[in-house]
Amino acid sequence: MTTQRVSVEEFAQLHKSGAHILDVRTPAEYRAAHIEGARLCPISDIEPQRLQKELTDQGFQAEDTLYLLCRGGGRATRAAERLAAETTLRVAVVDGGTEACIAAGLPVHRATSGEGISLERQVRIAAGALVLAGVLAGYWITPYGFIFSGLIGAGLIFAGISGTCAMGMLLAKMPWNR
Predict the structure, then answer these.
(1) Cys staple from 76: which of 20, 68, 123, 177, with CB 3.0 to 4.6 Å?
(2) For residue 78, what are the contacts with CB-CB under 8 A and spacing of at least 6?
(3) 41 is catalytic
(4) pLDDT band at 151 (very low <50, low <70, confident <90, very high)
């Protein structure tokens, strides 16, 4: 099967008619805010064959489409490619992800007490802390600290160009994101 893309405007209409929605963000991001009716299945936990069986057991038909969401679309696209390659599910990625859906006024379930820190913010915090630690180490302990900071910067550049983030994948596996 091929992966489709759906505009947020088109998805808003589909949502009203009971679309099947899979949110592939981390549990912390999902708890903070998610589109009503979305089912959580973090990208790191997707097992395509098991997911297809579960959906079929819940009444998902061959002609139905599974709409994938993440924060902005990157993780959903990777999940859709994997599902399309390993299952017969019809999948579509919602352009702009959860952020675009919220901006478009789709119904959202928000956490009532305390907000989880999004994976993107966690990456920023971790990267900033590592760069600062490298600079301080370079100034006070050894010049190799500056090299460490440079490597973190190079990793961030690679993440931006490639659309993948090793630090984000690692943070997604942390206990507070489960």
Answers:
(1) 68
(2) 43
(3) no
(4) very high
